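Reply to dn_fold:

You asked what the input looked like. This is it:
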Amino acid sequence: MTKKVADYLTNNMCLEGVIIEHDKSVYSYFIQIIIERTIGFLTIYIIALFQSCLFETVIFTLSFSELRKYTGGYHANSFKSCLIGTVGIYIIYIKFIYLFLFKYAQINVIAVVISSIVIFIVGVVNHPKMALNKKEYSQNKKHARIAVFCELLVILIFYLMGIAKKYVIFLSFGMILCAALIILAKITGQEVKYE
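and this is what came back:
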């Protein structure tokens, strides 16, 4: 469905002279990605709105997205699988994991430390869809380390300033989930060597 919409929009852009025929597939792919991300984020934000945790969820998605764009990690085979998995993980998080981590904050700290170590050491999982070359791989690893350091710093600042624990835990979950997806990609063999 999203591919059809992206192809339709790209064809119209080509007919209007906005892009050339040669670039249609590239534009179509990026439009499809934008549509799919928009659907994913809107779905999660609608659920968050009904669960009264919209602001916390925005913090989580910012944390997760910033790391994920550099680290890669496990990817589902289709948008439908990705959406179902994402929504499922999010619901499990807000209904169970968040409550557990809120009650046992020391476990959240341990999970954040382990996750940051995983991201700092592994850095990047070169998924076939990313297809990073050696230079891009090295740059992404560097950026992932900087991003994880910055997020740890923000978590520490939130904690020291006495900002509500719920914000710290939602921010932390972005890092924890990113590390979990890195490990899952390695376990399932989704990693490819850079070209």
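The helical segments are 2-15, 24-50, 54-71, 79-103, 105-122, 134-160, 165-187.
Hope that clears it up.
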